[in-house]
Amino acid sequence: MPTPNARIAILRTLHRIHRQLTDLRERLDRGPKQIRATENNVKHREEDLAKVKAEARALRMAADQKQLQLKSIEDKVKDLRRKLNAATSNREYQALLEQIAGDEMTNSVLSDEILEALEKVDAFQKNIAETEAALAAAKQRTGEVRAEVSEHEPLLKADIARLEAELQQAETTLPRDICEMYQRVVRQKGEDALAAIENQCCDGCNQQVPLNLVSQVMMGQPVFCKSCGRLLYMPE
Prior knowledge:
Blueprint: H1 4-85, H2 90-171, H3 176-189, E1 194-198, E2 201-202, H4 211-218, E3 231-233
Parallel strand pairs: 1-3
Antiparallel strand pairs: 1-2
Helix pairs in contact: 1-2
């Protein structure tokens, strides 16, 4: 029959192993989540790049259409000037002059619009380059995270297997009167199945533990926190 101190030491050891296993399992689970996060970032960067390129293409097409329109009106003005030279009356001459003036005004506005559109296209080209650089950086980060996860995963799995074996071995040393209760609370709470008593308080929920229960814990008896249900033990 283990002494009270030995019983307490077993619970202390079991809690340490449970906490270490929880930490390792969380780190193991975190790897795929980190990869998915970086992959999602790459996807968003790709969507951003596609959007910026589509907007740049739309601006380029609009500028090209205005340039075609400008060329068409310029050709029309040339034709009107030829007709102007061949005008046979003042009325016809004046009408042609007014039409030429109107078309040249239209071309002046078109020229300004084309210049503005081309400036926007140039700005979008810079934006495209920046977005492409962000995408490349995101892809590089994804590769780095995959490599890190691939490197650490076997080590974490090995540590988990070692601790699981250590836990199984430690559980065999539990006294029979504690073992069943311990197994039940572990199934329910996992790592939170146990808690130390610190300053007469349960370290799990910070609620005060009555002195008579503290005495029972010190005697190695199985005692559960009345507030949170954890199996209590004394710290070193």
